[in-house]
Amino acid sequence: MARTFLYARVSTRDQSTENQIREVEAAGFAVDKRRIISETVSGSSALAQRPGFMRLLDRLEDGDVLVVTKLDRLGRNTIDVAQTVGTLEKMGVRVHCLALGGVDLTSPAGRMTMHVISAVAQFERELLIERTQAGLEVAKAKGSVFGRPKALDATQTAAVRAALASGATISAVAKQFDTSRQTIMRVRDGG
Catalytic pick from 11, 44, 171, 180? Predict the structure, then answer.
């Protein structure tokens, strides 16, 4: 007989998984309290860094059902979620997501839903990259300077070169100009 598990995750200690548990019960899933895995861990954490989820993977068997309220409970991003669902599917575990109408993500309809979501996420990532690059080009054309500010201005750089040429040590020059040895070595090496 199939066992039903619930994975409930929140990101911060001041949040509770109770709403997720009630939502799953209201959707008609009967989950034994011993099969509810709740944890507090950032959504940006990889699954391997989620102790509760790793314990859940050890407990799941072929034919079991895993219920989550939202896709983001399963991973950091769409690719991560798709890989997690794929892993669970290979184990013979059906994955139901309430936010998607309770659809089993391992069924043909669920896989199609996952592909559509993945395609939309990829499209959004590409648009974001495009907009970011366009914005950078506009900023560069307006004369914006990117990156970390230089530790030494042109006058100081010339003074560093003169000090090094007169035999001063890198450490002494770094101390004199209140900067790092690496900065002085970059100046020495022509950077």
Answer: 11
